[in-house]
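thought: user wants a sequence for this fold. calling inverse folding tool.
action: design(structure=
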């Protein structure tokens, strides 16, 4: 490796030295985002935004395939609407941004910049729903929301962020619960298959559930520093909002009933999760299914063979692009091949294709994987067929690698001293028994900074032991972790 190359990589702080700094170095250097003039806000640059668009496509298709339609509701919500549901307003009021003036005129009623849209959507649903024939009502919205956060971190917690929020209304509890769990499964499918990120599905505790919800379910992922990240939530809202907003329907039995509602969302923080689950000291490692650039073609063209190599490279580029691959060619003369290798590795491009004069003579190209560094030589005539297969393998390998990491970093203990030690030294997920009392939940949080991520579905069949905190008979096996 030349001197120039070494210095290039040095600009990224190693994960082991300072994980937070590594994260910031990578996202800035890969041009995912930049800091905005308003503190806590960020600019999502084209490379980061293309990643988001690709994620949107994969998730939007799944949302529509399960019968939902997209719509758009206003960003401004009258204060009186937010005030209607007590738990909801208590949950969101501390981080709400208010509009008090229109131009120079003071508004007669303050407006909330939406922190989430339950209230305005409920207001509309109360007008739209009259009969059981209007149900279920299945609507999703892609938009931005604003929550005035005190401590922010790019993608993970920002004052304004992008998300989708689904809002549905149903005839009864059974249908609402089915929807809530169906959408959680949709998130799991999307995150595991498209983002190559394994997750734990389960129910949130009373303390951690959404403000105003009956039950909240979540998918929880484990970052490579051993901290958890809530990657998506799905709420059964019960009839709380329906009662407050008077959303009733005439059922087929002639009775007037309240609708049962759900809401569910994932946000741009998933981008932060991708970075932290897959990234390494060389930079980003992006899953092929959502990577803005799936393959980077680098012609290695010494002066005397320049034209010949570039011609052939252009031919390969055109054929691969036509086959549907998201490919880019880097034929910039002012940078050395080594410099380019580092740059595209840092940007997390899943596959590098190199073609030099000797390769061309032999009718072949060199392929280098970002996920494991494996290099192989492939006939040029085979590239169009072979690369999609290879990208599938990369996608699968990334998932398995992350899954192995999660399994290796999931500990189990019934001993509180050991629990504390693990949380201090290794972190990761800890499976432990819990009595169901929120005082114990709070005590563990105060003493170890670990929270109950969720009560996992896959552990519901097992009999819990004694509560990790108070030692009484436990109700659930739960997952604890320190979280972003
Ligand atoms: Zn307890």
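)
observation: tool returned 484 residues.
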């Amino acid at each position: 490796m030349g001197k120039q190359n070494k210095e290039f990589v040095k600009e990224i702080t190693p994960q082991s030295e300072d994980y937070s700094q590594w994260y910031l170095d990578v996202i800035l250097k890969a041009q995912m985002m930049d800091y905005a003039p308003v503190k806590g806000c960020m600019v999502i640059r084209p490379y980061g935004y293309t990643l988001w668009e690709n994620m949107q496509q994969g998730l939007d298709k799944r949302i529509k395939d399960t019968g939902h339609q997209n719509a758009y509701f206003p960003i401004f919500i009258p204060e009186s609407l937010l005030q209607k549901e007590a738990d909801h307003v208590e949950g969101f009021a501390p981080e709400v941004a208010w509009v008090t003036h229109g131009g120079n005129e003071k508004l007669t009623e303050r407006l909330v910049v939406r922190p989430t849209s339950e209230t305005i959507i409920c207001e509309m649903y109360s007008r739209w729903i009259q009969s059981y024939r209007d149900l279920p009502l299945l609507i999703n919205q892609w938009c931005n929301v604003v929550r005035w956060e005190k401590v922010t971190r790019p993608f993970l917690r920002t004052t304004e962020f992008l998300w989708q929020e689904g809002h549905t209304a149903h005839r009864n509890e059974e249908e609402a619960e089915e929807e809530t769990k169906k959408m959680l499964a949709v998130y799991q499918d999307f995150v595991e298959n498209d983002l190559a990120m394994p997750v734990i599905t389960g129910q949130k505790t009373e303390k951690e559930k959404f403000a105003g919800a009956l039950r909240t379910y979540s998918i929880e992922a484990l970052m490579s520093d051993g901290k958890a990240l809530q990657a998506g939530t799905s709420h059964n809202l019960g009839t709380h909002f329906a009662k407050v907003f008077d959303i009733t329907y005439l059922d087929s039995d002639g009775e007037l009933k309240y609708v049962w509602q759900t809401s569910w969302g994932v946000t741009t923080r998933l981008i932060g999760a991708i970075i932290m689950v897959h990234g390494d000291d060389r930079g980003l490692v992006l899953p092929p299914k959502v990577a803005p650039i799936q393959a980077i073609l680098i012609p290695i063209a010494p002066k005397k063979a320049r034209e010949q190599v570039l011609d052939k490279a252009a031919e390969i580029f055109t054929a691969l692009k036509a086959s549907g691959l998201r490919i880019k060619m880097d034929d910039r003369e002012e940078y050395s091949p080594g410099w380019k290798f580092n740059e595209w590795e840092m940007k997390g491009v899943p596959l590098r294709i190199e073609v030099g004069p000797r390769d061309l003579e032999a009718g072949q190209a060199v392929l280098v994987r970002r996920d494991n560094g494996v290099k192989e030589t492939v006939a040029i005539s085979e590239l169009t067929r072979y690369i999609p297969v290879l990208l599938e393998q990369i996608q699968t390998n990334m998932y398995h690698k992350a899954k192995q990491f999660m399994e290796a970093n999931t500990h189990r203990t019934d001993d509180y001293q050991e629990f504390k030690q693990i949380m201090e030294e290794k972190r990761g997920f800890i499976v432990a028994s819990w009595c169901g009392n929120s005082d114990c939940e709070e005590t563990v949080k105060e003493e170890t900074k670990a929270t109950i991520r969720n009560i996992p579905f896959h552990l519901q069949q097992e009999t819990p032991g004694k509560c990790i905190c108070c030692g009484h008979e436990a109700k659930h096996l739960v997952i604890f972790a320190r979280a972003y």
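thought: summarizing for user.
answer: Here is the designed sequence. The pocket of zinc ion is lined by residues 435, 437, 440, 467, 469-470, 472 (CB under 6 Å).
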